[in-house]
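Quick one: sequence plus flavin-adenine dinucleotide SMILES, need structure tokens.
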Amino acid sequence: MVSGAYARVLEPRSREELQAVMATCHEQRIPICLRGSGRSYGDANHSTQGIVIDLRGVNRILGFDAERGQVEVEGGVSFEQLWKYLLPLGHWPSVVPGTMAPTMAGAAAMNVHGKNNFKVGATGDQILELDLVLPSGEVRTTSRQQDPELFRAVIGSMGFLGCISRLVIQTKPVYSGQVRVAAKSAPNLRTMMEDMAAHVGDADYLVGWVDGFAKGPALGRGLTHIAYHLKPGEDPNAQATLQVSHQELPASILGFPKSEVWRPLRLLNHDRGMRLLNSVKHFMGKREAKRKPYLQSHAGFNFLLDYVPNWKFAYGRQTGRGLIQYQPFVPKERAAEVFERILELCQERGFVAYLGVLKRHRPDDYLLTHALDGWSLALDFKVDPKRRGQLWDLCDAMTEVVLEAGGRFYFAKDLVLGAGAFQRFLPADDLAKFRALKRTLDPHGVLQSDLYRRIFEPLDHPGPLPLTDF
Ligand SMILES: Cc1cc2nc3c(=O)[nH]c(=O)nc-3n(C[C@H](O)[C@H](O)[C@H](O)COP(=O)(O)OP(=O)(O)OC[C@H]3O[C@@H](n4cnc5c(N)ncnc54)[C@H](O)[C@@H]3O)c2cc1C
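Reply:
Sure thing.
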């Protein structure tokens, strides 16, 4: 495990219990770290100080307006719960991340995006209304119409302003339990970006896999998946494919029970093994690209990483070992050049990412947003405690390249940026507004996490007391 902390964990089972816990911590100035399913890659959901509130127990689906496609949920409802509820009713969450484990509040607090970010925006753009429990225990309801400034601040607020306890979310009608998927193999990054750009106008989903080991003219070679929802009447078996049973991911992969697949993967978890795996994937991708478009279940297409439970164990389970993800967002005009430079830097310094994922994004107007009209490249790096310092140095070097190009960072995926990072890419006015709001809503500054203490400068309010005073 590369990052983590021991903490006392409280698990409220209702909003009333949550309000009571928060009010007590507020009065006694005990730091609170809010936690959903713990699926952020860095230190957003853990804390070396105070208590952690695990919100997975506040997870009722409160209602569904089928005509409008609007679902009302408590914050601890997971994507898995939600899609399993919605799909037999002919709906699907408009935005889902690459795993079904996260909670809806955790997704709102990070403004999670899916493979359709270029088309529909991120989670925040699907939220019609939400309730925020303040540290005092008071509940504020906000939406784009009701207290819009608060709404702009809460989406992507990383649990620093209050606890999201209820959300009303717009979902999407679907007429099949499957999407139509086409694959296109690309000899290098620029071609892949051109392939993806050519489908921004018509595709429902776009995602690119990048081979970080390829060099020279093959730099950034990979495979694009372009997917489309089926139109009404297109799926003759819609009644059947819309059932949850049709979405189940396979129980075994190449003969291994899927819960054990991380073990053989661990044997390949070094540069030579991963170079081989990436090459095999590239050549299989070329074959896949020659096939006609095929049908795949929504869960199979969207939640690829859930095929291999505990896949991260392949990176090592001992303290200090594991992986980090580094996901810069870069404006479209500079993205190709920046990502090429990043891939070269990785190779020059001997830290090639074992997995690279390319996505197209669109901007939004949330106060702490990482979104922009451009692209992101998510890179998974193995962390070996002996070379950790060198890896962090590489990340610093990549960060300079990204910031110089007007890029941004996403804190669901970060463990490497330092204090002041936000100031380098967010408009000063937005940051000042966020801080002012934090001082108003959380006057004792109890809502914190290890991420908060790493990234934010000390705010001008009395600091919270450490756990020893609890
Ligand atoms: C395999 C994998 C694939 C992923 N794919 C994607 C992807 O495609 N796109 C993407 O955008 N992200 C992706 N992620 C990241 C993940 O979706 C986000 O980190 C998400 O925020 C995790 O939600 P969670 O419920 O686990 O929240 P946690 O990680 O537990 O918490 C996330 C943040 O939300 C805050 N928080 C939690 N609950 C509340 C609450 N009730 N009120 C206020 N704040 C709260 C926490 O304090 C923390 O700052 C992926 C992660 C994994 C492991």
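The chain has three domains: 8-54+424-469, 61-173, 178-413. The two ends are 27 Å apart (CA to CA).
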